[in-house]
Amino acid sequence: MKADSISKILKDSALRITPQRIAVLEAILMLNNHPTADNIIQYIKNAYPNIAIGTVYKILDNFVSKGLVNKVKTDSDSMRYDAVTEKHHHLYCYESDRIEDYFNEELDQYLNNYFIKRKIYNFKIEDIKLQIIGKFSDNTNK
Amino acid sequence: MKADSISKILKDSALRITPQRIAVLEAILMLNNHPTADNIIQYIKNAYPNIAIGTVYKILDNFVSKGLVNKVKTDSDSMRYDAVTEKHHHLYCYESDRIEDYFNEELDQYLNNYFIKRKIYNFKIEDIKLQIIGKFSDNTNK
DNA sequence: ATAATTGCAAAAGCTTTGCATGGCC
DNA sequence: GGCCATGCAAAGCTTTTGCAATTAT
Q1: Looking at beta carbons, which residues of chain B come within 8 Å of A114?
Q2: Do B25 and B72 fall into the same domain?
């Protein structure tokens, strides 16, 4: 992805355009396995040896609060980040650390309708995310 | 819950019965909002001022590996623990930190069947967990 | 008896914070 | 120019680790 299109994404989110922000966003988009902050920092360091860890965390928080990036919950210590903002679910592989996106509008529709008919007492649903746990049949890490 | 029944649970899981383990398991069962390790430690300290933090973490790991307790992923820093081992999902309230269990066998059946018909390429599903995000209508924290 | 568990304290992550410097608009 | 973002280093939290002492079986 070109720096131009990334700049545009930042501008559209009313974020000041800085080289660090471009680098972080590009890293998340390139590293497709839902990178940790550390993955991102390592990736950036090639082109950008002086970037500060704190800066990356601040940028990530920033992106999250603007809805540009989402946090992905995992069982392990560190938070992972996801630049795909369309509604989707996740496939978790318990063998590798791989997490893949899973899109299925048909199922989302079904679940929406299901919970309209079958309300949960005392709870107003805003979103439903599936954690689909299992194993990839190949062994690549993409 | 009586110490007797808790001892039985430990014995059934082939775990050595110690006062610390009884206290931890009792705490998880009593604190119903999916407690953090720290919640558990605070709870235990009343009756048991000298319990070591490291011990509680070791006990929790132990319980998790025996399947007595499950870890619950959240957006926040700390892991939470769940003593309910039957298949269930979670309601996450984004306002409070409340997490409630949600059981629905009918829906589980449907999802099982759905994914038998509609396989995910390259992925073998072992379990599906719903994260149902929203808001409780009351304001209690139970 | 012996093997596992505990307590303690230190250390190891990951993430946040404060503040002076520098850069974007 | 003014304000916001960055770099740096320190500190905060949660969790893990190692080891000697203690306890369960």
Answers
A1: 107
A2: yes
Residue B42: give the domain boundaries.
Answer: 3-82
Count: domains in chain B = 2
Spell out which residues of chain A touch residue B101, defining contact as CB-CB under 8 Å: none
Structure tokens at A134: 């299992």
CB distance A123–B132 less than 8 Å? yes
Per-residue pLDDT, averaged over B106-135, amounts to 96
Subunit contact A133:B125, Cβ cutoff 8 A: yes
- Encode pLDDT of A105-121 as tens digits: 999 999 999 999 999 99
**A70 bridge partner residues:** A82
Nearest to B126 among A128, A129, A135 (CB): A135
Q: What angle do helix axes A19-30 and A37-47 make, rounded to 10 degrees?
A: 120
Q: Which of B5, B24, B7, B32 is nearest to B62 (CA)?
A: B24
pTM of the model: 0.89
Q: Which residues of chain A have a CB within 8 Å of the CB of B94?
A: 126
State the Cα–Cα distance between residues A79 and A99, nearest whole angstrom. Answer: 12
Cβ-based neighbours of B106, under 8 Å, separated by 6 or more? none
* B69 and B97 housed in the same domain: no
Q: Which residue is nearest to nucleotide D8 (CA to C1')?
A: A52
Contact A123 B91 (CB under 8 A): yes
Whether B125 sits inside 8 A of A132 (CB atoms) is: yes
B9 plus B64 within the same structural domain:
yes
Residues B29 and B93 in one domain: no
As a dihedral over the C-alpha atoms of residue B106, residue B98, residue B126, residue A81, rounded to 10 degrees, the angle is 130
